[in-house]
């Protein structure tokens, strides 16, 4: 998979995350590892920072369910509008985490 194909695969996967559910950066990377040969949460974060605006960027969070501080207020508003389970101001990963292949 070329770097451009990997970017497309990341964006396509993120676009499939249902409203009210999330994936971690590492979860996105792990889901694409077999197809891509890459397994970098940091690379997924970079892709989302540069090109994630057209997809549900707020549905990709760090492993603790948080967003970078500069995006936290807007992400929180989007989470609330979608009914994303929150706990202590973060996404409740035990409840909200989505894996490809799960139902919506």
Describe the structure.
The structure is a single chain. This protein is mainly alpha-helical and 104 residues long. It has one domain (3-96): Arc Repressor Mutant, subunit A (Orthogonal Bundle). The chain is built from 5 helices and 4 strands; from the N terminus they run αβααβαββα. The chain has a two-stranded parallel ribbon. It has a two-stranded antiparallel ribbon with strand order 3-4. β3 and β4 (90-91) form a beta hairpin. The N and C termini lie far apart (28 Å). The model has no long low-confidence stretch (mean pLDDT 93).
CATH architecture level-2 label: Orthogonal Bundle
Strand order of the largest sheet: 1-2
What integer is the average pLDDT?
93
CATH superfamily: Winged helix-like DNA-binding domain superfamily/Winged helix DNA-binding domain
What about the largest sheet? 2 strands, parallel
Helix content: 40-55%
Question: Could you say which overall geometry the principal axes of the C-alpha atoms support?
Answer: globular
Organism: Micromonospora craniellae
GO molecular function, one term: methyltransferase activity
Protein name: Cysteine methyltransferase
Keywords: DNA damage, Methyltransferase, Transferase
């Amino acid at each position: 998979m070329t770097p451009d194909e990997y970017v497309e695969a990341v964006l396509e996967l993120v676009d499939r995350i249902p409203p009210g559910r999330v994936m971690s950066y590492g979860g996105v990377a792990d889901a694409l590892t077999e197809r891509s040969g890459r397994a970098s949460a940091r690379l997924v974060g970079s892709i989302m920072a540069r090109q994630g605006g057209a997809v549900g960027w707020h549905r990709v969070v760090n492993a603790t369910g948080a967003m970078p501080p500069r995006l936290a207020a807007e992400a929180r508003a989007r989470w609330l509008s979608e009914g994303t389970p929150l706990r202590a101001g973060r996404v409740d990963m035990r409840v909200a985490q989505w894996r490809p292949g799960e139902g919506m």
